[in-house]
Write a structure and sequence with these properties.
By secondary structure, the chain is of the alpha/beta class. The protein folds into two domains: about 5-180, no CATH class; about 215-315, Nucleic acid-binding proteins (OB fold (Dihydrolipoamide Acetyltransferase, E2P), Beta Barrel). Helices cover about 45% and strands about 15% of the residues. It contains nine helices and six strands. The protein has helices at about 15-25, 35-55, 65-80, 100-125, 130-150, 155-200, 210-215, 220-225, 270-280; strands at about 220, 235-245, 250-255, 260-265, 285-300, 305-315. A five-stranded mixed barrel has the order 2-3-4-6-5. Strand 5 (about 285-300) and strand 6 form a beta hairpin. The longest helix is centred in the middle third of the chain and has 46 residues, at about 155-200. The two termini are about 55 Å apart.
Length: about 325
């Protein structure tokens, strides 16, 4: 990545709002001085932690607030010899003063989030309108202008820091992708091992997840809404509210939204006795069963509905 001015904008609070909030913050939010390498390591950890939790959304380093702002401010003072603004002394005895370069660091942190956002956008493969791209670029330029105003003599140091950050965060992005791929492979391997153990008899079905693996079942919720004309004899997972018990307890009527399903031959299912002991009308339950038939059901409103019939293999609450 050659320049930060081709990257994007991420929304942050303006400088004065951040200052006002900080004046009311607790003293422990003050951050001890870091070197540049220590700062990048801290930001990397935050980046990768958020990447694991964000489901594809770009990390936002500004979520850490004053912790990162203060750390960046110290790095500009100590590693870049930037002295853009002096510390403000708080009039409140319990609130620490701002570190030097606080205003600049606040804008630089917003620019860092903008860089991350643009990197995510570039890797997503989604088309972006020229207008949106131009707005992001202009937004980043504004961050830099706000960071150096009224200290234009430090514009070079700001650009140097953001270029270094862009290079590092690109590596973090690649690392997060590799971590996600590894986690997915580990999950797939774990599922495959569990499935093999269940099918070979080395392990017993313990829950609805195991039953789903053992019977190679897929969700049957759509069938409850719209049954097939011809049942396919495949196994499905049914989740629903117990509407009523029929046939002396051997048939259960499940309701999900406006859909229904009959679960038959309950007494032949695995874990039958324990399930029946805890079963309650009006409570949710899970079933794995084979789709064997369709039947007509008269709702409490007097409407006739076609409902799928599943032969129970596993039941749980």
């Amino acid at each position: 990545m050659t320049g930060v001015f081709l990257l994007s904008m991420a929304a942050t609070a303006n400088a004065q709002e951040g200052l006002d909030k900080y004046m009311q913050a607790a003293p422990q939010q003050q951050t001890e001085a870091m070197t540049k390498d220590e700062l990048f390591q801290s930001l990397k950890l935050q980046y990768l932690t958020q990447s694991r939790r964000a489901s594809g959304n770009p990390p936002q380093l500004s979520l850490a607030g004053n912790k990162n702002i203060n750390a960046i401010a110290y790095v500009f003072s100590n590693d870049y010899s930037v002295h853009c603004d002096k510390a403000r002394v708080s009039p409140y005895p319990t609130v620490p003063s701002f570190p030097e370069n606080y205003h600049l660091a606040q804008q630089v942190l917003g620019a860092a989030d903008a860089i991350i956002e643009m990197q995510y956008e570039q890797d997503s493969g989604r088309p972006t309108s020229p207008l949106a791209s131009n707005q992001r670029r202009q937004g980043l330029i504004n961050y830099v202008r706000n960071a150096t105003f009224p200290c234009k003599q430090y514009a070079g140091q700001v650009k140097q820091f953001l270029d270094e950050f862009a290079s590092e965060s690109e590596k973090w992005k690649q690392a997060s992708v590799e971590n996600a791929q590894l986690s997915q492979k580990q999950r797939s391997d774990s599922i495959a091992e569990r499935s093999a153990a269940l099918r070979s008899g080395q392990a017993e079905i313990q829950n609805v997840g195991d039953a789903t693996l053992f019977y190679n079942a897929t969700t049957g919720l759509s069938l409850m809404m719209n049954p097939k004309v011809k049942p396919d004899e495949k196994y499905y997972v049914i989740q629903g509210l117990l509407e009523k018990i029929e046939d002396g307890g051997d048939t259960l009527l499940a309701k999900f939204g406006d859909g229904y399903a009959r679960i038959v031959h309950v007494s032949a299912s695995k874990q039958h006795q324990g399930f029946m002991d805890s079963l309650r009308v009006g409570r949710n339950f899970n079933a794995v069963g084979r789709y064997v038939d369709n039947a007509e059901y008269m709702t409490v409103m007097g409407a006739s509905k076609t409902v799928p019939v599943f032969e129970a293999a596993y039941l749980s609450q």
